Amino acid sequence: MNIDNTVALVTGANRGLGRAFAQRLLERGASKVYATARRPETVDLPGVEVLPLDITDPASVRAAAEAAPDVSLLINNAGISTGTDLVTGSLDAVRHELETNMFGHLEMIRAFAPALARNGGGAIVNVLSAMSWFGTKGANAYHLTKAAAWAMTNGVRLELAEQGTLVTAVHLGLADTDMAAGWPVDKIAPSDLADAALDGVEAGSAEVLADQWSRDIKSRLPLAPEEFNAAMDRALAALIAA
Q1: What is the mean pLDDT of residues 191-218?
Q2: pLDDT (mean) for 191-214
Q3: What domain of life (predicted)?
Q4: Which residues neighbour 236 within 8 Å (Cβ) at sequence distance 6 or greater?
């Protein structure tokens, strides 16, 4: 799939990674970019078509699908992190993260899959995280939701293969966005993340490991849980110390 002349829709396009996706899509020759946000007035990128969208509201998702029937590339970027743990944290917060980070993405895929099929198959990008594979105190709800979104991505990839839709999972450590503002460590630039993801789409890749952090963590998955957790403790300590 070529990005040039693609019609794309980006969720959470008013800031951070979503805005970077929308901008790089325009710069790489997309013929139309639908930039969506819960508050559409906050989208400030020239050249996009702005749509209101709350991915946790099925009616809003259906309205977006009806307003954008020509989409051939869906970028599921919108997400939240509440800083909630699983045992002692608010279950309402855990559910809210799940509704956004996993069910919201699935709702979008279900709504746009028919349009993608009509438009030649197209592609879906799900922005996940290296935290699909590991937890840490203070963010275990986020870990849960990204692990669930990873499994969901793997499942819909199988289900949509027959209609010719590429489903690309994008994993990263930390990007230089508001969500990661409290971490004084090296972070991938949003534009670099967007380019890595779009390069993956053009290459037909099912998975993009966008930075060294995500590549290192993925390589540790064969370890026993005790070894994996010890390795992650060392890696997080080294990241913070750096």
Answers
A1: 95
A2: 96
A3: Bacteria
A4: 136
